[in-house]
Specification:
It contains three helices and three strands. By secondary structure, the protein is of the alpha+beta class. It folds into two domains: 1-33; 34-96, no CATH class. Strands 1-2-3 form a three-stranded antiparallel sheet.
């Protein structure tokens, strides 16, 4: 039984390492692109990862810009990860 748990843990560890690497590559590619100007302030927006989706956020207004299909991906991810302690909509629009 302990071997099965170790094998599962190893598989899980590899999975998350691969997913993290993919997300970091997406973020690096997004950062190489010319930053989009914020529609509110005109300053360069900053790419962030939320639920595996790279979004653009204005550092001053905290407004976000989504590319085609990203809202649907965020909604699907939010439904999968929803629980009473974590409201993805509040996380998306929170001010720092």
């Amino acid at each position: 039984m302990a071997n099965d748990e170790n094998d599962l843990s190893s598989v899980e560890e590899k999975y998350f390492k691969r997913k993290n690497k993919e997300l970091m590559e997406k973020l690096a590619a997004k950062k190489k692109e010319k930053p989009r100007p914020s529609p509110v302030t005109g300053e360069a927006m900053i790419p962030e990862i939320m639920f595996g989706v790279v979004i653009d956020r204005c550092p001053t207004s905290r407004g976000i810009w989504l590319d085609a299909g990203e809202l649907e991906m965020l909604m699907a991810a939010g439904i999968k990860e929803h629980d009473e302690r974590s409201n993805w909509v509040k996380r998306l629009f929170k001010r720092k």
